[in-house]
Design goal:
This protein has about 200 residues and is an alpha/beta fold. Helix content is about 30%, strand content about 30%. β4 and β5 form a beta hairpin. The N and C termini lie far apart (about 45 Å).
């Protein structure tokens, strides 16, 4: 289980963290937000995928993440309908608050993954041989409905697998930059707070 650190309604980022962990990146190639660069001579370019999972056997699973009712309903209007010869399995992933709506509107061939939070406990070391228990929340993933596999889906070539991995590694630099930007903002906020308190922590 993964401990939840965010507050409020589940976000797309919350969902991505849960799903990537569930699909096991140690065994599968998992890349979020694939919007270009994947194609096949027979089926042409792959449509945009919120989360693309490529198994060791070379078959792909697409997960479409929706965190609002409006966005979920709008997705039903997409021309491609999440149908492509390179996709073997297709799921929608929604927060538990959208489970009922999703069960009513999504296509019969799509599976449904539901993310919720559960209360639990965490432990921190209090001494050399003792721990202190804290209440916390954990993410929980439930397969509300299994998908109907596309048995005619193509097995990905090594070249296509390498391209997907290349797209994944291209994200690392951008994510590192976002972390640095966020850290800088936190540091600036801390500096302003110290100044407002009259220079707490400065040498006297």
């Amino acid at each position: 289980m993964i401990k939840r650190v965010s507050k409020g309604n589940l976000t797309t980022l919350d969902m991505e963290v849960v799903l990537i962990n569930a699909f096991n990146p140690r065994q599968n190639v998992i890349v979020p937000n694939v919007s270009w660069g994947i194609h096949d001579k027979l089926y042409h370019s792959l449509h945009e995928c919120d989360l693309l999972v490529l198994s060791g056997s070379g078959y792909a699973t697409e997960v479409e993440i929706k965190v609002s009712k409006a966005d979920l309903l709008k997705d039903m209007e997409k021309r491609h309908g999440h149908l492509h010869g390179m996709i073997r399995r297709f799921y929608y992933a929604v927060p538990d608050t959208l489970r009922t709506v999703a069960e009513e509107v999504i296509t019969e061939r799509a599976g449904l993954l539901v993310v919720s939070t559960k209360d639990g406990y965490d432990y921190s070391r209090k001494g050399w041989d003792s721990y202190e228990r804290h209440t916390c929340s954990y993410y929980h993933l439930d397969t509300a409905r299994e998908c109907k596999a596309n048995t005619k889906a193509l097995k990905w070539t090594d070249e296509q697998r390498n391209q997907l991995m290349r797209l994944g590694t291209m994200r690392i630099g951008g994510l590192k930059q976002k972390i640095l930007t966020l850290k800088s903002k936190i540091d600036e906020k801390a500096d302003r707070s110290d100044t407002d308190k009259g220079g707490v922590g400065e040498a006297k």
